[in-house]
Amino acid sequence: MVMTQTKPFTIAKEITVYPESNEVELQECDQITHVNLEPRVMKVLLLLAKNEGKVIAREQFIDEIWDNYESADEALTQAISLLRKKINDSDGNNRIIETVPKKGYKLNRPVQSKPPYEKEDTEKPSLSKPINRNIILFLAIVILLVIAYAIFDSVNSQESVAPEAPKAESVK
Predict the structure, then answer these.
(1) Is residue 117 part of a domain?
(2) Per the domain annotation, does 86 fall within a domain?
(3) Do 88 and 144 share a domain, yes or no?
(4) Would 123 be classed as within a structural domain?
(5) DSSP code, position 70
(6) Residue 167: inside a domain, yes or no?
(7) How far apart, in whole angstroms, are the C-alpha atoms of residue 85 and residue 95?
(8) How many CB atoms within 10 Å of residue 59?
(9) Element (H, E) at 104
(10) Residue 76: pLDDT above 90?
(11) Over residues 44-73, mean pLDDT
């Protein structure tokens, strides 16, 4: 099938693509918009980006993404249309994704392997990152030790506070 590209990349410095989450970030003026793509639409974008500036035949899209599915030709047309809408590719004379009549499609913008800007404090938290099991295990052990100490301390303090039985006086 298609691409193994999973790292974020940019198209023309204004579109950042996050393949793993099927998300595209559009930067227009001072505004950033996040858009989700359907998995096959993302695959279309990945194939275009991989072949930046080259015409990709419709048959190649159909073969690699739809695995020669019966209605793939229509599905490809719809995917390209949806992708253009999602990335605001509406300028007919200067399209990001160009239709090459009787041949296919091509991406008309440069692709960079990493985002052009790094925003440390505005990076969205990723819920998909696995938490290190060693950290969880360590925290669980610490919590258990604290609980055990509290119970042990509580039992010892009750024993030391317990009243002593009065001593019997010896009779002389």
Answers:
(1) no
(2) yes
(3) no
(4) no
(5) T
(6) no
(7) 11
(8) 13
(9) strand 104-107
(10) yes
(11) 91
Integer Cα distance of 98 and 166 in angstroms = 99
Structural domain span for residue 152: 130-161
End-to-end CA distance of the chain: 104
Determine the pLDDT at residue 161: 55
CA atoms within 13 A on the CB side of 26: 13
The string of DSSP codes covering the chain is: ------S-EEETTTEEEEGGGTEEEEEETTEEEEEE--HHHHHHHHHHHHTTTS-EEHHHHHHHHSTT-TTHHHHHHHHHHHHHHHTT---TTS-SEEEETTTEEEE-S-EESS-S---STTPPPPSSSPPPHHHHHHHHHHHHHHHHHHHHHHHHHHHHHSPPPPPPPPP-
pLDDT for the residue 138: 87
Number of compact structural domains in the chain: 2
> Is residue 42 within 8 Å of residue 53, measured between CB atoms?
no
Which range among 82-86, 91-95, 110-114, 156-160 shows the weakest confidence by mean pLDDT?
A: 156-160
Which of the listed ranges 24-38, 117-131, 158-172 does the model predict with the highest average pLDDT?
Answer: 24-38
Give the tens place of pLDDT for each residue, 6-28. 789 998 888 999 999 999 999 88
Compute the distance between CA of residue 111 and CA of residue 98 in angstroms, rounded to an integer.
15
